[in-house]
Amino acid sequence: MAETPTKNATLTIDDQSYDLPMYSPTAGPDVLDIRKLYAQAGVFTYDPGFTSTASCDSTITFIDGDKGELLHRGYPIDQLAEKSHYLEVCYLLLYGELPSAAELEKFENTITRHTMLHEQMQYFFRGFRRDAHPMATMVGVVGAMSAFYHDSTDIKDPKQREIASHRLIAKMPTIAAWAYKYSIGQPFVYPRNDLSYAANFLHMCFSVPAEPYHVNPILSRAMDRIFTLHADHEQNASTSTVRLASSSGANPFACIAAGIACLWGPAHGGANQACLEMLKEIGTPDRIPEFIARAKDKNDPFRLMGFGHRVYKNFDPRATVMKQSADEVLDLLGIENNPILATAKELEKQALEDPYFAEKKLFPNVDFYSGIILEAMGFPTSMFTPIFALSRTVGWVSQWKEQLADPQHKIGRPRQLYLGSTARDYTDIETR
Ligand code: SDX
């Protein structure tokens, strides 16, 4: 936790001045330490959407929203997407440095050998309706892992934290794939240790026992890149949920289940599904102006899904890489003239030319193109957010580990601006 102030701020309230220490980061804005403000001045700060609040210090991911920059342990996301691969990025996020060849081989072997689920967990899937949203299944099954993996729930034991991290990263593709298989009435496909992480996921989703399945290396590369692009993203809503759940001492599986639940919302990880459904509703480029007008209409709650971001006030660097990947995948699949992609590109063009979006700095985000790729690969829209959750598990786990490693971390307990009734006496029903 930050302890050495680099400067001081003075706050004056009713002629009383209070000195507040400030800390300077290695990158990004300075922070004002208000931890003692209530004790000193008897006031709270007020920041309902946390637009100006740093909830922690971290060394994992840095975002410069104005520059459209995203760094994982200092490495730019576009370099990682081009030159690295997901499990190497997992190692980087978990341990802080790129692995040596020997370290990477050991890590990949560990993850590969934790991909199977306890056989009895299949009953959890079977307890859901076939038409349950796979995110509902994932929340339930991941939470239920606390009922199976008792040897990795003691958060005070670094070894158990390590095993829980590996199990979550390794088993999430199996859980997501089985949620998909269950929803389409096909048998569960077990993971294979001879396949890469992304190829294994595609195999578990799309192979059937009736015939051999060959994973297309270009599609598994595109899948791996999608995992990498979604791996971590500073203190976003679902990561903050994981940190807050963990601050009470909850076990790792319960904390990650909470993160999955938060990610599900259409304003967050559910936007990829909502974006593709919006593009399908728009249908043809001639209807784009109608939807742009709705997005600009203050009286219409409609928003362009896949546009805008709390932090990026420039292009989301992940969207740029995702757009290139969309072109590659659709070209490979011979559907480069995919009408949805054509509509997406025309929508992006018209929105970016519209003063409303330029003034509000609303650019395509990571969710704008990912759905197009996933649909082209054969995933139903209901699987888009589970794939986001699978990818983000390493980010949640890395941030969870970082918080627990800080001996000074405390339970998160915000206060409020109370606008309700002041104290009043109970009245009997006869007198109301
Ligand atoms: C993710 O935090 C993260 O890092 C998240 C994420 C990650 O990797 O974890 O990056 C993943 O969640 C990406 C975002 C996916 N969500 C969407 O695509 C849904 C559509 N976008 C929005 O709902 C919105 O842009 C948010 C939720 C993403 C950000 O909202 P903010 O920062 O709270 O901004 P806001 O709602 O206050 O909007 C500011 C203004 C408003 O207009 P005014 O009230 O100032 O007049 O911009 C407008 C909004 O109405 N606006 C939009 C818009 N997004 C914002 N108008 C039309 N379409 C949109 N998409």
Give a verbal description of the structure.
The chain is 49% helix and 6% strand. It is mainly α. It has a three-stranded antiparallel sheet with strand order 1-2-3. A three-stranded antiparallel sheet has the order 4-5-6. A hairpin with a 4-residue loop joins strand 4 (61-64) and strand 5 (69-72). Helix 10 packs across helix 18 (384-404) and helix 11 packs across helix 18. The mean pLDDT is 95. It binds s-citryldethia Coenzyme A (SDX). S-citryldethia Coenzyme A (SDX) binds next to helix 17.
Task: Provide a concise account of the structure shown.
Helix content is 49%, strand content 6%.
CA radius of gyration is 23 Å
Instruction: Give the overall pLDDT as a whole number.
Output: 95
Compute the separation of the termini in Å.
53 Å
> What's the arrangement of strands in the largest beta sheet?
1-2-3
Q: What's the number of extended β-strand segments?
A: 6
- Main sheet? 3 strands, antiparallel
Q: Please report which band the strand proportion falls in: under 5%, 5-15%, 15-25%, 25-35%, 35-45% or over 45%.
A: 5-15%
- Give the class from helix and strand content and strand pairing: mainly alpha
What ligands does this structure carry? s-citryldethia Coenzyme A
Low-confidence runs of at least 5 consecutive residues: none
Write down the overall geometry. Answer: globular
H and E order: EEEHEEEHHHHHHHHHHHHHHHHH
What fraction, in percent, of the residue positions are helical?
40-55%
- SS summary, helix count: 18
Features:
432 residues, mainly alpha, three-stranded antiparallel β-sheet, 18 helices, 49% helix, globular, binds s-citryldethia Coenzyme A
